[in-house]
Design brief:
The chain is an alpha+beta fold. Helices cover about 35% and strands about 35% of the residues. A hairpin with a 5-residue loop joins strand 3 and strand 4. The mean pLDDT is about 90.
């Protein structure tokens, strides 16, 4: 099964109220220059989601979600799915990183 489809199926088990932040919320939102509402809308719509990488860390399944807006801009969310949808971290990605991922064929 496609990793994006798998993540979307898992996401349907959560509501917008189930989202919590693993780090200080203000720090994460300032880092990616977005509001909490924008983040929630982006995650649940999946509009610019191009790649999902499943990771096993500390007996927990995490998902690295790569959102690409253009050739020069993107964003990565690392999320853990448990009793609640936990955003562990988020960071912006730029042109060089996107180019590197394209070469590795992660992102179309």
């Amino acid at each position: 099964m496609d990793s994006i489809k798998e993540f979307e199926i898992l996401l349907k088990n959560y509501s917008k109220d189930d989202i919590v932040f693993g780090k200080i919320e203000k720090y994460i939102l300032d880092r990616i220059n977005a509001s909490k509402e924008e983040v929630i809308k982006e995650l649940f719509s999946g509009e610019n989601l191009k790649f999902v990488e499943k990771q096993e860390r500390n007996n927990e399944t995490r998902y690295a979600l790569f959102f690409v807006y253009s050739k020069r801009k993107g964003r990565v969310y690392v999320a853990g799915l448990g009793e609640e949808f936990r955003i562990i971290t988020a960071y912006p990605i730029g042109r060089k990183t996107l180019s590197k991922y394209k070469k590795k064929r992660f992102i179309n």
